[in-house]
Amino acid sequence: MGADGVRNVLAGVAGQVVQAGSIGTVTFAPEPPLDLVPAQVPAGPSRFVDRVGQLAALRALVGGEPELGRPVVVAVRGMPGVGKSALLRRAATELAGEYPDGALYAAFGADGESTAAALGRLLRGLGIPDVKIPADLAGRRDLYRSRTARTRLITVLDDVTDAAQVEALLPNSAAGLVLVAGNTALEELHVDGAVPIVLEPLDPPDAIDLLRAVCGDGRVDAEPAAAAELVELCGRLPLAICVIGARLPVRPRWTIARLIDDLRDTDLVLDRVTKVADAVHAELPEPARAVYRAVGLLVGPEFGDEVLGAMVGAPTNEVRGHLDHLAAAALIEERDNGQYAMHRLIRAHALRVAAEETTEAERAGQLRRAVDWWLLGATAADVAATGWERLRVADPKRLLADVELTMSAGAALAWFDREHANIAAAMRACAERGWHTPIWQLFEATFAYYDARRPLAAWVETGRLAVEAAALDGAVAAEARCRCLLAKAYQELERFDAAAAELDRAREVAQDERLRGSVHDFTGNLALRTGHFDEALRWFREALDINVRLGRARGTAMQTLFVGRALAGLGRAPEALAAFDEAARLAVAAGADSVVAKSLLATATAYAAGGRPDEAEGAAARAEEIAVRLDNSALRAEIHLLRAEIALSQGDPAAREAHLAAAAAAYERMGSPKAARLLVGLVDA
């Protein structure tokens, strides 16, 4: 194994575990099923008291008369810890049946999303694939308004700091309900008709009821005066009551009076949440304290047990036990997806404690171990999604030497779906600390995700970080590769001049044949995209020659396919067909199934254009068999469109209708505008 420590892999029906002794373990779950109706609002707290009047007011708004074209907006404000998020989540749960088109959720605040990022995630929840989501805020806002027109959605916007955040995320339908939570009044919302709700601390009886629910035994009833004093000490804030009250169930011999004395003995600031968090933290065993401090170093709405295990150097099952301890102390919340979340006030406390109890070197070491964990996961997912042969500057076998990857490409992409925002945050943290190497390594490993999902804004941001980091690192090969990958993002954004500039610089720094072949590949695709078929053919042939000399089987198959596409663009159909046939043969030998399917589809398209429908149908049917096995919905949709065209030429209207319906269903699942055109019979291939 070398210096990297023990590596292993555990695989089964539940997914795959990739293990590196010096880094930790990364688990890849099976690809989740497609969720056609968004249900993004996190579950509310299990203990919820009072707020009867506020919930009744929200129910009364259902079916009311909103402003023309605008959904009903309810703006809930109150001090931190008063229970705004809990109220909104409870309301979303109770009212879910009134809003059949689903529930959307976004959280802002100091550690929350930007408006653009929130719009992107909401659009994905509404079924829009990443490739169709604009990179700019205005484009995302326009698409969101189009997608939410005439829908009946409930939308929860938490920790809002600016009315503009709400305006950008308002669904374009008067049938919806938007619940907004913030610490201060947002006057602009009220001017536009928002219904204000001010949330005060709990009334004393309700605060005691909450404490009783947290304790779960008879101590509250046995010590009514002490219970009343304790909730007042907590300011009757639900967050504080839950955090401090959670100390009692694990101390069955303690009285409430003793807990109060313990709190009084702490000479702390007046902030009640900080006071109770300090008191609870002081009672934690050191291993749980270490995990708590590590959480404070993480940025993002959710985190997992495995990355924390890597940070603190403990097995995942032990970390999970410490997280259970933190959850029992109400310091964190376990989500339905197995991830964890921490209230931003508690997170601020954890970060403060980490700064007080650890050195800068210790914190840097923990962060670097987290970065290494993300790099291990991204590398494994990249190889699982695209195979070992794809060109990489960083050798994946350094981390995965003895690992037999058995996860599906879907499971790999699902892992990226969960972790890509954390990976981007890790890259930014590395840039702040001058850790150049892991930045470009993470970007290169994440390309499989970017190419499949097309989150273009994030792709460009991290690509720029990676290019700069590689240059500062003196890694010219990495710089050339990262510039190519960044150019691809610019190409998808139709920023062709920016793409060309990156490729020009990549050619200048590429020093070996395999990298020059990659630059030629990307340059040829840019020329193909912009209709310069002669130029594309020249670049693809040069890339093909390089791949042949290097013995790269998959690359040879892919470049042969690209040569065929350029020939087809030039109207040289016989040569194109020969190239497609050769590409399919090479791809079969290389085990590159996706290239086989694309070659067959290109062949079928050429046959159809040449008036050979029977041969076109045969090639398209074989392509579809592979696409079904790969679960490649985009490729299947393209095949159905072509087969509908073929069926029309064969005089088979029933087959045409069936293929159009299948294509429309696939595009509708992807959120493609082609779906609407197909449904009205306007096929735009």
UniProtKB/TrEMBL annotation:
Keyword tRNA processing: no
Signal peptide start and end residues: none
UniProt xrefs under InterPro entries: P-loop_NTPase (IPR027417), TPR-like_helical_dom_sf (IPR011990), TPR_rpt (IPR019734)
Annotated TM spans: none
Residue ranges that the Swiss-Prot or TrEMBL entry lists as coiled coil: 486-513
Ranges occupied by TPR repeats: 517-550
Top-rank taxon: Bacteria
GO MF annotations in UniProt: ADP binding
Keyword vocabulary terms for this entry: Coiled coil, TPR repeat
PROSITE patterns, alphabetized: TPR
The protein's name in its UniProt record: NB-ARC domain-containing protein
Provenance organism: Actinokineospora auranticolor
